[in-house]
Amino acid sequence: MAEPATAEVADTDLIRRSWREPEAFAVLFDRHAPALHRYAARRLGPDSADDVVSEVFLAAFEHRQRYRLDQADARPWLYGIASNVIGKRRRAELSRYRAYVRGGVDPVEIGGGLVEEGVGTLAVNRPLVAALAGLRAGDRDALLLVAWVGLTYEEVAAALDIPVGTVRSRLNRARKKVRQALEGTDHG
Q1: Domain that holds residue 140
Q2: Is there a domain that residue 188 lies in?
Q3: Is 135 helix (H, G, I), strand (E, B) or coil?
Q4: Which long-range contacts (CB under 8 A, 24 or more apart) does 86-92 make?
Q5: pLDDT in tens, the chain (188 residues)
Q6: Is residue 145 packed enough to be buried (19+ CB in 10 Å), middle (13-18) or exposed (0-12)?
Q7: In this structure, is residue 133 part of a structural domain?
């Protein structure tokens, strides 16, 4: 019987297969690295994103035996690792946000293409970036995993290894602070 196409193979099955065939883990990299790179670039810049993705997949590969096999989708697990790696670089993230607020130019835009397509004007971006910089680290992680990655509350809880109720609290607090920051800029 032929092996199913890699697009049809659940992440769990790839991880399990990688225990005896380590090269199977490369499919996970191919499947998830581009989105993880975009997320890391939005948080730390394109130069750091390469390092973050490398660290995420190195840690994931080294700890793949601990993966919860009841989770078919590895995204929450990988973004949880990414949140930890980014957390170690928190100063760089905050410096990036503050520089953007001061100068109004995102290094990602200069580098050849806007990573974020959704929010387009500096009048919106500067206050938003300032609000993100002012959030507690855990609140920012929860908010960005929902807003930028599209994880569900349950997936964020799995990614950050916290209860769903804590995710709800963090999101509520983060949304409130961001809303207040953006309303404070409305001069119309």
Answers
A1: 6-183
A2: no
A3: coil
A4: 86/40, 86/43, 86/44, 86/52, 86/141, 87/137, 87/141, 89/44, 89/48, 89/52, 90/137, 92/44, 92/45, 92/48
A5: 445 555 689 999 999 999 999 999 999 999 999 999 999 998 888 888 999 999 999 999 999 999 999 999 999 999 999 999 998 887 777 777 777 777 665 544 433 333 344 444 444 577 888 888 889 999 999 999 999 999 999 999 999 999 999 999 999 999 999 998 888 765 44
A6: buried
A7: yes
Domain count, the chain: 1
What is the number of residues in the chain? Answer: 188
SS3 at position 69: coil
Record the tokens describing residue 184, joined without a space: 């404070």
Whether 104 is in a domain gets the answer: yes
Q: How crowded is residue 6: how many other Cβ atoms within 10 Å of its Cβ?
A: 13
Query: Domain with 31 in it: what CATH number?
Result: 1.10.10.10
Q: Is residue 1 part of a domain?
A: no
Structure tokens of 55?
């660290």
